[in-house]
Amino acid sequence: MIDCLKRGLNVGADFATVVGTAGIASNPNPLTSGLYFDLDMLDRHDFVIEHDGSLSRADASTGNNYSFNQTIWDTVLDYYSGMDNATIPVASKARFNRISTEAARDPNFSYSPVQFILSYGETALYLSTMGDPITGVAPLEYVRSLFEDERLPYELGWQPPKTETTLATLGAMALELNAASGEQVPEGVILGEKSLRAVLLGLNAATGEIENNAAYAVAKLTGALGSLIGL
Question: Does the predicted model carry a pTM greater than 0.90?
């Protein structure tokens, strides 16, 4: 997986290791069935990766948190009306609108510090891999192809960014996205590289305590805990 993400998206080994660990932890029996995961396993609600307020999926309470939802995605695209590129300021507003919308209409809406961090991380990820990991500028046609067609848009001229996407670049962009939205950061959380790494490995981003036992156990096996030095 590390090699595939590097060759396919120019994603660094640090992020590939922790997101792969999070994926494996979504397996209901990761330690006995083998260290693997599939897309169906990633649907588990609030379990490491899946969360309410998605940019392109409905909340878990609707009964379908896995299928692409054009109506929801259109609310994101509305923010890019008349634009050729996705940018940090506009992506931030589109992301926050999704959170605010679902918080207002879903009585079971879940938005803990973990979901707060992952939501910013995923927006940073699509801006980085479809565009530039430093500036956050990404051609909108590439972004649309990624979400709507669920494939890498080679036929549109996309190529992996020359700059590597790492936990550090994602953390820095998450901070810029948050600054652009003005959303309050949860108490005790320092948004950035370390908090993104922590939640993907099953730790509380504010206290450093184990919050997801499965993710932490898998992190031990994959060696991902070695990246937590200095957290």
Answer: yes
